[in-house]
Design a protein that fits this description.
alpha+beta; 31% strand; single chain
């Protein structure tokens, strides 16, 4: 299976369990790896036979900017389901970064990584 990857998609969302997170929001960063067979697209040099990663990026940002959820696990699941709606995408790995998580000790990042497939 081939991979189309998008790294560092940024959007502001209001996800989290604390009132301050819901009110103020924060930046979330999303990395995607889409599993699909790119041979038909390459053979015909045809965008219609692969995934349009620009559209995927817009849809993912819309999810992050959309309805708030408590957990980044839920956010990652919603993003995965949006990606799997694209014809040809058989598998997706989603990593959601929450670098502004409300943690009281020094840290660089908090992430959740999930893999989902059509099967």
């Amino acid at each position: 299976m081939d991979r189309v990857a998008l790294r560092g998609l940024r959007a502001r969302g209001h996800h989290g369990v604390f009132p301050q997170e819901r009110e103020e929001g924060q930046t979330f960063v999303v990395d995607l790896s889409l599993g699909l067979d790119t041979r038909p697209a390459a053979a015909g040099d045809d965008l219609a036979k692969t995934v349009h990663y620009g559209i995927v990026a817009e849809e993912v940002v819309a999810v992050v900017e959309g309805e708030p959820v408590d957990l980044i696990e839920t956010l990652a699941e919603r993003i995965a389901q949006v990606c799997l709606k694209h014809q040809g995408v058989q598998e997706v790995e989603v990593c959601v970064h929450k670098p502004g998580a409300p943690i009281t000790v020094p840290f660089d990042d908090v992430t959740i990584t999930i893999t989902r497939s059509r099967v």
